[in-house]
Amino acid sequence: MEKNYYVCTGCGLLCDDIEVESEKNIINKVYTACRVGVAHMKEVRGEAGFRVDNAPVDEATAIREAASILKNAKNPLIFGLGTSTDEAQKLAIELARKTDATLDDTSSFCLGPLVEALLQDKIKTCTLDDVRNKADVIIFWGADPSDSHPRHLSKHSYFPRGSEKQRGWEEERTAIAIDVRKSHTAKICGNYFFQIPPEGDAEFIDALIAALSGKLPKTSYNYPPKKILELANILKGAKFGVIFAGLGLIYSLKDMEPVFRLMKALNEKANFQLVPMVGHYNMRGFNENLYAETGYVNRVKFENGTVKHGPEYSVVESLKAKTVDAALIIGSDPLSSLPRSVSKNLLEIPVISIDPCETLTSKHSKVYINTAISGVESGGSATRMDGIKVSFKPVVETARLSDEATLKKIMEAL
Ligand code: SF4
Questions:
Q1: Per-residue pLDDT tens over the stretch 372-381
Q2: Which of 250, 276, 302 is the last residue before a domain boundary?
Q3: Nearest Cα residue to 390 out of 404, 379, 400
Q4: Structure letter (DSSP) for residue 369
Q5: What is the pLDDT of residues 158-180, one digit of tens each?
Q6: Which residue in 339, 333, 338, 319 sits closest to 365, CA to CA?
Q7: Are residues 133 and 96 in the same domain?
Q8: DSSP H helical segments within 102-200, as ranges?
Q9: Contacts of 307 (CB under 8 A, 6+ apart)
Q10: Helix (H, G, I), strand (E, B) or coil at 378
Q11: Are 308 and 300 in contact (CB under 8 A)?
Q12: How far apart are CA 113 and CA 199, in angstroms?
C-alpha cells in the first residue's frame, strides 16, 4: 500500500516525511516528527469560532466587521503571516495595497536583514540538501536547533550520511557552536564549543577575521587567542562550510556588517555559505513574496499605488509612534511578544485577529476569527528556511476557514 506522507509546519524545516494515524478528523498518532512536530500536529481542536467584542457571532458578521474596520482606517497595520501559506501571504499583500496599509512581519526584528542579504546575493547560501551531502564544517552561531528545530542535526546538518559525506559525522563533519551558553546543541559540539559573553559577537567576529589572516586575535573580554587561532585553522580548511545564523547572533549585532565582513574573509580562505535559522515555518516565504512584489522583505507602507519602505514602517515603530489606526494580526501574538510599552498601543485601536490559537492578542481583539492550522487542517505552499518551496495538503478536515479563505472573504467584503 502506498504511504501517505505529510509536511510538518511546526518549524522552518518543513519536514516532509511525516506519517499520521487519524480517525474522524482526530490525529491519534504521528510518526517521524520530533516532539515539537507531534504536539503541533495533535493541536487540532473543535469547531470554527467567530467573535466580535468577545461575543460569539456568525461568520458573515465577523467578516463584515473586519472589512468595515479596514475600510474606515486611514493607515491599518497588517502584521504576522509567518505561519500562513504563500497563498495567504500574497492575498495579505494585495489587501495591504488595497487598503493603503503598513505591512510588516516578525522578520523586521529578527532574521529579515539576513534573508534580504541572501535575496540580494550579498551572501552565499545553500540548501539543507547541500549541507547534508557536502558540508564538512558547520557552525551554529547563536542558534540551538536541538531545541528550536529538533530534527535539524539528525535530518540535515550533522548526523546523516550525505552523497559526498559517506563516513558521516564521526569522521567527516565538524560541528561548532558559538554561543553565550552551553545549549543542547553546544553539548553535541563537545570541544568545539566557543562560549562568548552576551553581545560579544561583533568583537569575536573581528578577532576571528584577524586570526584568519594570521594576526593575533584580541577581544576586550580576553578570549584565549589560541582558541580563536585553532578555530580559524579549522575554518580555513573547510571545503564546504556553513554558518547557521540564529537569533542569538542577530540580537547581539547593531547591523549585519560584521557578518558580511566575516563571510568575505572566510570565502577568501575557504568556501562558506550562510543559512538563517528561520523559526516560523513560512517567515522566509513572507520575505520572498513581499520582495517579489515590492523589492523589500518587510517594513513597507502602501500609499496611492506606491510603496514606501523604512524603519518607521516596522511594527514596533509604527505602534510606538501611533501612526496606525487599526490592525489586522494574522497568526501572531504581539501583545505577548512585543514589549508592553509598544504593544499597549494596540489596545487603543480596533484589532482583527486571525489565528488558530486563542492568544492574548485575540482576547483583546475587536474581531477574532479562529482559523485552521495550516499544514494540519489546510493545505498550500511555503518556503523552507533554506529557500526550497514545499507544498502540503491538510492532514484532517475542519470547519474552520483557512487564513487564505478568511482573507479572500474580507477582500470581497471591502
Ligand atoms: S523539526 Fe520542525 S518541521 Fe521537522 S518535525 Fe520537528 S517541528 Fe516539524
A1: 999 999 999 9
A2: 276
A3: 379
A4: E
A5: 999 999 889 888 889 999 999 99
A6: 333
A7: no
A8: 112-119, 128-134, 145-148, 168-171, 184-189
A9: 294, 295, 296, 300, 301
A10: strand
A11: yes
A12: 18
The C-alpha atoms of residue 166 and residue 311 are separated, in whole angstroms, by 47
**Top mutation candidate among 5, 7, 15, 43 for ligand 1, by most atoms within 8 Å of CB:** 15
Whether 402 and 55 have beta carbons less than 8 Å apart is answered as: no
Q: What are phi and psi of 141, to 5 degrees?
A: -110, 110
Mutate to test the pocket of ligand 1, among 41, 149, 284 (most ligand atoms within 8 A of CB): 149
243 shares its domain with 166 = yes
User: pTM of the predicted model, to two decimals?
Assistant: 0.95
Asked if 231 and 330 sit in the same domain, the reply is no
User: Please, which residues have CB within 8 angstroms of residue 23's CB and are 6 or more apart in sequence?
Assistant: none
pLDDT per residue over 345-356, tens digit each? 999 999 999 999
Phi-psi region of 291 (alpha: psi -120 to 50; beta: other; left: phi over 0): alpha
E-strand stretches of 152-268: 174-179, 193-195, 241-245
pLDDT at 2: 65
Residue 103: count other Cβ atoms within 10 Å of its Cβ.
Answer: 29
Domain boundary among 245, 276, 307: 276
The candidate with the shortest Cα–Cα distance to 9, out of 399, 393, 334, is 393
- Domain of residue 304: give its range: 46-109+281-375+397-413
Distance of CA 41 from the midpoint of ligand 1 (Å): 10
The structural domain count of the chain equals 2
CATH code of residue 175: 3.40.228.10
Would 147 be classed as within a structural domain?
yes
Are residues 331 and 226 part of one domain? no
| CA 8–ligand 1 middle distance (angstroms) | 6
CA dihedral 222, 224, 227, 228 (to 10 degrees): 30
202 and 312, same domain (yes or no): no
CB-count exposure of residue 42 (10 Å: 0-12, 13-18, 19+)? middle
Q: Which amino acids bring their CB within 6 angstroms of ligand 1?
A: 8, 10-11, 13-15, 33-34, 36-37, 149-151
